[in-house]
From TrEMBL:
SUPFAM superfamilies associated with the record: P-loop containing nucleoside triphosphate hydrolases (SSF52540)
Ranges in coiled-coil conformation: none
Organism in which the protein naturally occurs: Comamonas flocculans
PANTHER family tied to this protein: ALIPHATIC SULFONATES IMPORT ATP-BINDING PROTEIN SSUB, TAURINE IMPORT ATP-BINDING PROTEIN-RELATED
Family matches, as InterPro entries: AAA+_ATPase, ABC_transporter-like_ATP-bd, ABC_transporter-like_CS, ABC_transporter_ATP-bind, P-loop_NTPase
Upper classification of the organism: Bacteria, Pseudomonadati, Pseudomonadota, Betaproteobacteria, Burkholderiales
Pfam families: ABC_tran
Domain of life: Bacteria
Molecular functions per Gene Ontology: ATP binding; ATP hydrolysis activity
Protein name: ATP-binding cassette domain-containing protein
Stated family: Belongs to the ABC transporter superfamily.
Length: 284
């Protein structure tokens, strides 16, 4: 992977038949960064992720994926029920042409790093809890040493404790190497906990209507910080309108809009420079 590797999306629009879903989307995701896509149901988050993954054909605009290896995690773990957990994790390595002893050793090491012990690795997916299956799915993706990880809400069905464990595993992997992550989530707190930038998609067709840039490294964020930033994000009228929420009543709505960048169609507006705010990098 070159130091300048990035996923770049420019002027991306998409329609399903006559229905326009996305309009003029632009984003850039460099190595080591995390971008979270949030927005109301049906706003086109999965469509955007699938266009980035090459699962849908780009018809208007551009998606340039400069990363050498991309992996994707879906809402469901999609493990093969007739293979052991270890074999599931090793599956992608077989496609890479690794010999059996090598791929099983790498799969075992990654499974263990994800908290799967020898017993769990020897079992079939149906014998594992949902949380263990999610760990296996994450191990199967990470064992391929991707430079870019696309996450389609893989943690949404997990309880709060398991979800936190998965976050820590992901952050540890990111700290180890320059893994870029593009994630969809319905959970604004999760987005603020993990992402360097949160992009809010809304409208019909959807555009990026708001961007929140968070300079504090994810590993240094504590619960108070995450909740404060989430409250500030949720207090923004544009974000509330995106989710069809009534106007905010809480104190957060009266606080200055720290750490947020509102994007009007065609222009970037830096609301209030704050310590944690990056310069807006969305090419419009
Ligand atoms: N293959 C398809 N054919 C036709 N319409 C589609 C297709 N896939 C998605 N859509 C429509 O495109 C719109 C955006 O869907 P998409 O799944 O991208 O939204 P989303 O923001 O990911 O939704 P959710 O948060 O509920 O998962 C929706 O109206 C959906 O019905």
């Amino acid at each position: 992977m070159s130091a300048a590797a990035a996923l770049t999306v420019q002027a991306l629009s998409h329609a399903f038949g006559p229905r326009e879903v996305l309009q003029e989307i632009a984003l850039q995701l460099p190595a080591g960064h995390t971008l979270a896509l949030v927005g109301p149901s049906g706003s086109g988050k999965s469509t955007l992720l699938h266009l980035c993954a090459g699962l849908l054909t780009v018809r208007a605009g551009r998606v340039d994926n400069g990363f050498a290896r991309t992996a994707m995690l879906f809402q469901q773990p999609h493990l093969l029920p007739w293979k052991t957990v270890l074999d599931n994790i090793a599956l992608g390595l077989k496609a890479r042409g690794l010999r059996a002893p090598q791929r099983l050793a790498q799969a075992r090491a990654m499974g263990e790093a994800m908290g799967l012990d020898a017993l769990a690795l020897a079992q079939f997916p149906g014998q594992l809890s949902g949380g263990m299956q999610s760990r296996a799915a994450l191990a199967r993706a990470l064992v391929l040493q991707p430079d870019l990880l696309l996450l389609d809400e893989p943690f949404s069905a997990l309880d709060i404790g398991l979800r936190e464990q998965m976050h820590q595993l992901l952050l540890a992997e990111q700290a180890r190497r320059q893994l870029a992550v593009l994630m969809i989530t319905h959970d604004l707190t999760e987005a603020v906990a993990l992402a360097d930038s949160v992009l809010v998609l809304a409208g019909s067709p959807a555009r990026i209507c708001w961007r929140l840039d968070l300079a504090l490294p994810a590993l240094q964020r504590d619960d108070d910080w995450v909740h404060r930033q989430t409250a500030l994000l949720l207090a923004q009228p544009v974000v509330r309108a995106a989710f069809e929420l009534p106007p905010a009543k809480r104190e957060a709505a009266r606080q200055p809009a720290a750490d947020v960048t509102g994007l009007q169609p065609g222009q970037a507006v830096l609301q209030t420079p704050a310590l944690d705010t990056h310069r807006c990098e969305v090419p419009l």
